[in-house]
Amino acid sequence: MNIYSDLSHSALKYLKDTEVNINNLLIMTRDFNIRDRFWNSSFPHHSSISNDLFIIADLFNLKLSTPTNPVPTRYSDMIGESNSVINLIFLHNGASELNSHIIYLDWRLTSNHVPLTITIPIAEEFVQFSKLTIPKKSEEEEKFIKEVISIFKSLNTSSITNRESLEQIINSLASGFEQAWFSNAKNINITKHSKKWWNDNCNRSLSKYRESRTLKD
Known about the structure:
By secondary structure, the protein is α+β, with helices and mostly antiparallel strands. It has helices at 10-17, 49-59, 139-153, 163-184, 200-212; strands spanning 27-31, 62-64, 66-67, 87-92, 100-103, 116-117, 130-133, 186-189. The chain folds into two domains: 10-117, Endonuclease/exonuclease/phosphatase (Deoxyribonuclease I, Chain A, 4-Layer Sandwich), CATH 3.60.10; 130-207, no CATH class. The longest helix is centred in the last third of the chain and has 22 residues, at 163-184. It is elongated.
C-alpha cells in the first residue's frame, strides 16, 4: 500500500478513523511526514502522531522495517533546514525473508527524496502445460470402461480371509485401473480454451465475487 500523508496527516487520520478492509497486506510505504526520534536518532523529539501510525500498522499486521544503511530519506534545499527521515517502510509481521530495506542515496538525482528499495522473493511455481485425459464419449472412453468392467468380472474375492489378502485384491484393482487408464488416455496441451468444466454457475459466481470482493464469495 502506497501512502502519502500531508503535513496535516490526513491519510493517517483517515486510516485510523475508517474501517479499511485490506487482507494480507505485505508492505506499506512512502512519505508519512513524521519526524520522530524512534526512527531518527539525531532527532530529539517524539511525535504523538507516530502512535497513530503504529496503531494503523498493527491493524494491518505490519512492523517498521529497519534500513541496512540508516541515513536521511529527505534532503532539504533550504539553508538552515536539516535533513530528515520521513520515508518509511512497514513490512508484513512474521515474514522472515522481509526484514530490512535499503536506502539508495545515489538514486536521488534532482529529487529531495531518496528511493527506498526492498527485494520481495517470489517462490518458483510449477506450471503444468499438459495432462493425460480421456475425451468424453470417445472411442478411448468406451474402451477404458470395457477394460474396467473386465477387471471387475475377473476379480476373485473368494480368497479374502484376512486383511493382507484384502489389500492384495485392492492393489491388484488399482494396478489394473492404472494400466487401463494409461493405455487409453491421451496427452493434451493445456490452453486457455481447455476449461471444459466452466459453465453458467461459474459465470454467476465470478460476477458475484467481482461485485463483493469478499473472500467468502
